[in-house]
Structure formats: structure tokens, C-alpha cells
Amino acid sequence: MRKEAIERRNEILDAADELFGQKGFDGTSTNEILEKVGIARGTLYYHFKSKEDIMDALIDRYNTQILGAANGIATDKSIPVHERIVRVVMALNVSGGNSKEIIDHIHKPQNALMHQKIQKVIINGLPPILTEIIREGIEQELFSTPYPYECMEMIVAYTNTVFDDDMVDLTDDERAARIPAFIFNVERLLGVESGSLMYMMKMFDGGNGGGGHGNDGG
After folding, report:
1. Claim to verify: residue 43 and residue 63 sit in the same structural domain
2. Structurally, how many domains does the chain consist of?
3. Tell me, what's the pLDDT at 205?
4. pLDDT-derived band of residue 103, with 50, 70 and 90 as boundaries?
5. Cα(160)–Cα(115) distance, integer angstroms
6. d(CA 186, CA 197)
7. Which of 82, 94, 106, 93 is nearest to 183 (CA)?
8. pLDDT in tens, 112-148
9. Which residue, 35, 89, 133, 159, is the most exposed by fewest CB within 10 angstroms?
């Protein structure tokens, strides 16, 4: 029974994920989820108290997927420290194959609550992962800061608000101008030589922005 219950719960989450992607959280009714899975209302409420409860469970699943991939890279000592930082941030867009789809559909206006909750996951979950890489960099004398965690918190909070199309309206030119300024300031925060972190530009290359959770729109 236990295995069946887990499978049924995942079926409900898969159906909700697909419907939220197509119609948005606000535009999806619990009836539509029931119909898609082919279950009775009582079965749904056995697993979830409400539609928002389903959303929270989905966000937990995204959390495991997105932060799990980031953590896997962060702890891989075979990757140089500098490269690991970029790859951890990039993992927010590409981990697990469908994170890009997650990011795209939470940016729909009708998914504003999901967007806010995912941002909370990233702003709370990513700085500790990045901090461990920075501490390693300090040991290797690559970085010099008495505040590794606070540095990462500032960086994650900035990239997930200013570079998020839903939070700050930037033209392509304005975004392009922000990137070297951002890197210049990160260099100051980490106490490294000017220009030494310009490799981070690659986080922002390509069509999906790449600078983290919010800047997929180019």
C-alpha cells in the first residue's frame, strides 16, 4: 500500500505540474486535476489538503531537483573552484532536464505565488551551497573575505531580483550594462584582483540569460 500511495501522490503532482504549466496555478481547478489522474475527490484530499498544498509539494520537488543538482556540483572537488561557482548558478536553469520549463511556467502572471515560493527556496537554499565553495577558495587563497556567507547571500538576492524580468524591467542594453558592473562588485566582495572574475560573463551568455533563476528571457 505504501508504494501505491507514493505512486498515486506522484501521479497527482505530475498532473498538477502539467496543468499549472498549461493554464497556470490560478487557472487550474482541483476538478481538472482529478479528471486528469482519474481519481475521486476523497483520494486527492487523502494526499493533499488543498490546491496550494499540491503547489507546496511541487515546490519541494523542484527544490530537491534544483538544489540537489547545484549541491552535486558544489561538492565535486575535481572541478576548479572558479568553474564550480558558475556551474552551480547555471544548474538552476538546466538541472534535471525540465528546470528550464519550471522556470518558464512560474513566470506566467497566474503563477505569481509559485514564483515567489521558488524564489524563497533559491534565496534561502543557494547561498549555503555557494558559501562552501567560497570557503574552499579562501583556503586556496583565491578569495579573501571575512563574510563568505553574506557575500553569497547578497549575490543570490541581487541576481534573483534585479535580473528577474518580473521584478525589474530592464531593456537588453540595460541588462548588458548591469553584468560587468555586477562582476566588478563581486570582485570587490570577494577581495580579488579587478578583472579576475570576468569568466563569470559566461553565466550570462546564450539565449536564456543563465545568470540564475529569473533571467531566462534574454
Report:
1. no
2. 2
3. 65
4. low
5. 11
6. 8
7. 82
8. 788 888 888 889 999 999 999 999 999 999 999 999 9
9. 35
Same domain, 5 and 37: yes
- 117 and 197 inside one domain: yes
Q: Is residue 216 part of a domain?
A: no
Domain contains 123: yes
- In terms of domains, do 59 and 91 share one? yes
- 217 within domain boundaries: no
Domain coverage including residue 128: 52-204
Rg (CA), the chain: 19
Q: Are residues 183 and 136 in the same domain?
A: yes
pLDDT by residue (tens digit) across 82-98?
889 888 887 776 444 44
